[in-house]
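Q: Could you fold this chain for me?
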Amino acid sequence: MITQAQQKALVSSVRNLQEAAKTARARRRAQAYGAYTNLIKANPELGIAYADRALTLLAMKRYSEAVADCNKAISLRKDSSDVYNRRAAAYTQLKKYDLALADYTKIINMNPASAAAYRDRAVCYLRKGDKKNSKRDIDMAKKAMSGKISGTNQQQKTSFLAVKGGNIVDLSSVPIEKFDEIIKKDPVHKPVYLLHRAATNLLQGKAQKALDDVDQVLKLSDADLNKGGCPSRDKVQQLRITALNKLGRHFDVISESTNLLKSHPGDEQTRLILAMSNFESGKFKEASVEAAKIKNNPKLAQGAMILKAKADAKLKRKPK
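A: Sure. Below is the predicted structure, expressed as structure tokens.
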């Protein structure tokens, strides 16, 4: 059973991680670096802390240390495209262009529609003196921006923090085949394990299995849901909406995302999914309107801009 002290430690670590990120966004880099370092000392297996400290180190122009933190994050299976992008940026500054190119290629393999990855790889090729491949990647970036390149279903790994063996761990480092065994050994944290298994199943294209796990969690009371660092109910609902979207249940997506946005109007991830489902349902005007509202998150805004352009094009061709 989780002790009160462990629960407090988990809550404290989550708050420290959030505070460190907030400090980094405010460009108080030395303070952010210290906050991440203290968090890592207390939780040395927390991959997300290394990944985020690497971003701060990049801003401080401490490129070799940024590479080391990215390597540690990847070794802890916190190997999202963001981590590879940070390591590639550090390699580029260190003039290790072949290593940078390899990381940008990994990002493109994860998401062939990433215009930013093509653009950054083009810069790297140019610095290496390879104008031919640089021009090719610039052309690919333009195609990605125009929506002419299809992306993949791969998403960023979500971090779920919990107490395990007396330590705070990031559950995204747990292989999916271990979940049944882990749940039996640690039933207190079953909700958060189910959520991470759901996120992992989504990455593997197993949307129905993901939905089944999410629905189990949503049946719990708020008190049970909050145990062991489980995300809030609205975040769980967001994961359900994502699974419904992958299953093509667009009517359900439109209904549930509309309800969620009434209480969380700033949730741009849910708004983008709503816009996508409106588009797939032939509601191009609604898709355009919702996509136009997405402005704060740069990555989501880029996808929303492409979706809006597609919806507007459909509206122009639609018979009056």
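A (continued): Residues 44 and 135 are 42 Å apart (CA to CA).
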